[in-house]
Design a protein that fits this description.
The chain has 735 residues and is of the alpha+beta class. The chain has 23 helices and 18 strands. It has a six-stranded antiparallel beta sheet, sandwiched between helices. Strands 2-1-5-4-3 form a five-stranded antiparallel beta sheet, with helices on both faces. It has a five-stranded mixed beta sheet with strand order 13-15-16-18-17, covered by helices on one side. Strand 4 and strand 5 form a beta hairpin.
Length: 735
Amino acid sequence: MTTPGRLFTAPIFENELKTRKAHLLNIIIWGLILIPIPYVLYHLIAYSEHLSRALIQAGFGESINMVLLYLLKRGRIQAASSLLVCMFWLFYTVSAFTLDGARGASYLMGYPLVIVIAGVLLGGKATMIVTFFSLASGGIMAYAETHDWLVAQVSQDPFFLWIVSLSVFPISAGLQYLAARQTREALLRARASEEKYRLISQVTSDYTFSTELDSKGNPRLSWAAGAFEKITGYTIEEYTATGGWRGRLHPDDLEKDSQNLAALKSNRPVVAEIRIYTKPGELRWVRAYAHPVWDDRQNKLVGIVGAVQDITKQHATEERELHRRAMLEKVIRLGKVVTEVKDLQTTLELIWHGVHDDLGFDRLGIFLYNFEHHAMQGTLGTSRLGQMEEKWDRWYPLDEFAIFLRILDKPDGLYFTYDFELENGIGRDGDMAGVKDYAAVAAWAGNKPIAMICVDNLITGRPIREEDLEALRWFSGYAGLAIENARLNSALQNELLQRQSFIDELESKNAELERFTYTVSHDLKSPLVTITGFLGFLEQDALSENREKLRSTIARIISAAQKMQSLLNDLLELSRIGRMMNLPGHIQFEEIVREALERVRGRLDERKARIKIQNDLPVVYGDRIRLVEVLQNLLDNSAKYVSLGSDLCIEIGAKEDHEETIFFVRDNGIGIDPQFHERIFGLFNKLDTRTEGTGIGLTLVKRIIEVHGGRIWVESELGKGATFTFALPKIPQKE
């Protein structure tokens, strides 16, 4: 702006009120600067004899105006306003006393102008003071004039008053206009401020407040602005009537609020996060900023000012983030547990407990993916009561169950719905009836699908949150690796067990071969020695021509040869077992029992044996001929070792176990000492050498049972009979 422009323009300040007052003062000063011009011109033309007086007055007035203009430009607005009112009041007072008194223009027009200027620039109090002194001055002039102390020189020229009014009236009108305009602007600003306040109240989540303390030191809300009703739901009157701030606090936060009030009473500001109840009963988190209003004279708290901010959403976000972090930490901890190499069943149970107990889902189902069948195989799931249940006999082909196929095709491998029952058309019956929130996630090991984990909160009805889904998705990664590791570990363990079984079997065969070699060398040597010895006797008997002794020696040689033949036949039969087997199949065990009984019928009838056969004997899978040999040998032993003076009783039965069927042959014979329970199954081990047979029968029985993948043992005591028990697997053994 140019220098002349700055001369005629009022200065601008940061304080808006000061700027407006400077603007008014600038207009008044320039108006007063212009007033002397017509006044001097009038005296120059009409009253030249008073021109010197007019020039003195004009010079005095312009000097004052220049001083005022200087103070204005220097920013001394209050000083300039006060000086203007005082000096011009004095100017008009001197003019009135020295010229025309209370009936002249100075009193009738000058004083009103000064009063208006005082009101505009200095306010109502200054107006009352100027008015009082003006009236007092007028009273003094009137009193002095009536007592001839003052001789008023009232001008009779009407143009004189008109000339004066040319200056006074425009200034008065201008001041009235400016005052009216300021009033209108103030009203407009007030309306705009009110509208802004209304709009801010609608969008802000904060409110400011002022609280006063009563005589007992209890705070009482006196003023609030902003989103007060939006946050609390109350008007100020309702809020105060229902107990105010303390009446809306959560019970657990009352003690905390008391501590905050104590801090404020110690002249310390407070920032606190508190829970409050709104008018509808909703619980909200707010952050309160409270600053003490302190009375220094009384040295105590007299009020509180501050602001309250609604942080419900922020607090919920923070809680979700804390919950999310806790869940992820829990997932990492669970992941380390489930990925430890274990058997598959244990791994699945750990995964079930991790999802159910630690991640907090009411129900879940773990479906294992079968690549060969392109289906989900069975499930380790949860009943409607929240208990673990296994259903491994079920298959879920992916072509028939689109939900599984949909999950495997999704990039994130996750499916979630808020209304599973409606979305999938579930009826009123069944395990999934009533399910709302439902999620399913695929468990992968690299690029290989391993399993599917499905969850819901049917029992509690709790919603499944986003952080719950994230934790489930993270945990499914660990679950996939854990299941795959368990499968690989099981395969490795099976291979190691199989190898160990081969090693054990080889060691057993070697040990058996050693025993066999020793037994054969020992037992076959005995008949050979007998034959060799009696051949010498035979030669002697032939030379002595003793026919009777010759026949006896030949009979003994034949007996020894026959014994050797029996031993060789039994050894040959033993060697065939395991190498030469008949075609296996499913056979009624009762048929095996009947056939074995027929083979030893003669010996049993000789002993007058009573046979008890259990009803409904199960079906067995195996070599029919060999299994008949087992029963035949066991029955023959029972008939061979019967107690003297007692009737033989044989009981045959069976019972089902988890993975095998257990058969038994029980008798009331002489029994077997427990120390020989293992020995009797050895090759050629006869406890009583006087009995017939080679002692290989129970060895044959054990070999046949072991070839069928079973096991055999005896339970017996001397004099209490014997029970031979053998177990055969239900699942056919691979050849």
